[in-house]
Specification:
The protein contains nine helices and seven strands; from the N terminus they run H-E-H-E-H-E-H-E-H-E-H-E-H-H-H-E. It is an alpha/beta fold. Helix 6 links the parallel strand 5 and strand 6.
Length: about 260
């Protein structure tokens, strides 16, 4: 590790990160990486038992598991209040929580559409608003990272609504950049768009473990740790550099 990288890592040591959707997959990998890099990490999900298991596996580091249903604004408010009480607020927000349903435009269930919009868009907005408020109060030099998707850059067949939520994240990333610039804020914003990553996503999307296995066995797909690497890299950039968009595909992924 270069002296420059070590200095930038040191600048984040002891500061507070919030990782949403941290009970498994990308969120768990990101939470563990930031904790091992010396940050205090609040990690939220509905499944508190999984968060407790992750806390034990990380061991001895400053991690705070919080049970929250991000579809409920009251849960989000309570989560931020807890972090403020424990650590004073948030310096880094990783908006990782997200989900997809196989719910086509012509035949999908309204509840599936609503859940994607509530979690992928509205919860991201509310978390961002609360975190930016903390960051402005705590030195105005934080970082907001949205875990988006390659579906924000093209529309896979049958995924019109899911893609729409991720196209929204693209718009919200740029909109936030513009608003922060107008405020002359030093807060940075980054969107990371992974292609296929071996997580629980495909099984939930297709409601089939067999389809998920087939999806992830066509070629070597990404691992959650690959996305944690991208989060870490974007944080370690110099203060004048904003990494706006990172697109990450498996080498063999077609689109």
């Amino acid at each position: 590790m270069s002296d420059t990288t070590s200095a930038r890592l040191e600048a984040w040591r002891g500061r507070v990160a919030l990782v949403t959707g941290a009970s498994a997959g990308i969120g768990a990998a990101v939470a563990e990486r930031l904790a091992r890099d010396g940050m205090k990490v609040a990690m939220c999900a509905r499944r508190i038992d999984r968060l407790e298991t992750l806390r034990k596996s990380i061991g001895g580091l400053d991690v705070l598991p919080i049970s929250a249903d991000l579809r409920q604004e009251a849960d989000i408010a309570a989560m931020f209040e807890r972090i403020r009480e424990e650590w004073g607020g948030v310096d880094v927000l990783v908006n990782n929580a997200g989900l997809g349903h196989d719910a086509p435009l012509t035949s999908g269930k309204t509840d599936d559409w609503r859940e994607m919009l509530d979690v992928n868009v509205l919860a991201l907005l509310v978390c961002t608003r609360e975190a930016v408020s903390d960051m402005r109060r705590r030195g105005d030099d934080g970082h907001v990272i949205h875990i988006s998707s390659m579906a924000a850059h093209r529309v896979p067949p049958g995924s019109g609504v899911y893609s729409a939520t991720k196209y929204a994240v693209r718009s919200l990333t740029e909109g936030l950049r513009q608003e922060l610039r107008a405020l002359e804020s030093r807060i940075r914003v980054t969107a990371i768009s992974p292609g296929f990553v071996e997580t629980e996503f495909a099984a939930k999307y297709h409601k089939s473990e067999d389809v998920a296995l087939e999806t992830y066995s066509r070629y070597k797909v990404l691992e959650s740790e690959d996305i944690a690497d991208a989060v870490s890299w974007s944080l370690l950039g110099p203060p004048h550099m904003q990494v706006h968009d990172i697109l990450i595909r498996p080498r063999d992924q077609k689109s």
